[in-house]
Amino acid sequence: MRSTLKNTPFKSLAMGSALALTTGFFSATTQAAEIATDPGDYTPLPAGVNLGILYGQYATRDTVYADGNKVPVDAGLNTIIGLARFVHYMDIGGVIVDPQIIVPFGKVELEEPFGPLQPTSESGVGDPIIGATAWVLNNPDDQQWVGLSAFASVPVGQYDDDKGPVNIGENRWKGIFQAAYVKHLSNSVVLDLIAEYSVYGDNDDFLGFKREQEDAQSLQGHLRYLLSKQSHVALSYYHSFGGETTVGGQDQDDRVNTNRWLATYATFVDPTVQLQVQAGQDINVENGFEEDTRVNFRVLKVF
């Protein structure tokens, strides 16, 4: 079994679905940031405001890469992921802070045999993520902000050890840290820049093996154009790297180096209800599944 893990494209599946399936407004996608932010996420709201947000994310993948080369296998990995998120803004000593919780749910489906796995699927509720952002710079007059975030993914979601990477939960702790800078370049153009650093606990029951993962990083950028006070369009870029894994003590040579783009349109259809739609795909993948189609929907309620 150990030699099988080392000598098949299993490593690409492990990275391609387990790395970030259960997160983000997150991406729920392959080789993406653990928390893939949306345009405007790091612009703070006043203390006392609450947000209820529901996300729907659909992605398909049918090509696998290893060390930058396309793997000659039939492959298919589809995900339908939902996220329920609650955010509360509060003032602590003059600093805006937003404690929040995100609960992922949905379905992961492996359509073709891959490495040691036969076609299979898993559905249910994933690992909840809890955390908060603190805005250490909050300057509406100069229209610039700096936010620092810390999140923890708690391993209580649905997990079947026999299915390894094809799971909603991950059977391990994760720590996710972000630093963001937001600046209005003009009255209509806004730039968001986010850096992320993620650390991982061990999964002690990954197809009967122990799975370990090195720290991972990502850079995210959003360029927004404000069509009006109610609507905006945006173009986003995500670059993720690091996160190499070992399974059963064997190096999987699966370091992530992936970039992708995403286009966004968002509008308030009511003073307290915003709808958002996004579409995009991977640009380049070094290891793992390449995402060929991604469509995201979001409904946000202010109360």
Write the layout of secondary structure elements.
Elements lengths: L1 H6 L2 H9 L31 E17 L2 E2 L6 E12 L1 E3 L2 E3 L2 E11 L9 E6 L3 E11 L4 E10 L20 E11 L4 E12 L2 E4 L2 E5 L2 E11 L4 E12 L2 E3 L2 E2 L4 E15 L2 E13 L2 E15 L1
Antiparallel strand pairs: 1-2, 1-3, 1-20, 3-6, 4-5, 6-7, 6-8, 8-9, 9-10, 10-11, 11-14, 12-13, 13-16, 14-15, 15-18, 16-17, 18-19, 19-20
Q: Can you give a write-up of this model?
A:
The chain has 303 residues and is mostly beta strands. 5% of the residues lie in helices and 59% in strands. The chain has 2 helices and 20 strands. It has helices spanning 2-7, 10-18, and strands at residues 50-66, 69-70, 77-88, 90-92, 95-97, 100-110, 120-125, 129-139, 144-153, 174-184, 189-200, 203-206, 209-213, 216-226, 231-242, 245-247, 250-251, 256-270, 273-285, 288-302. The strands form 3 sheets. The chain has a 12-stranded antiparallel barrel. Strands 12-13-16-17 form a 4-stranded antiparallel beta sheet. A two-stranded antiparallel ribbon has the order 4-5. A hairpin with a 2-residue loop joins β19 (273-285) and β20. The longest helix has 9 residues, at 10-18. It starts with a helix and ends with a strand. Mean pLDDT is 89; it is low at 1-31.
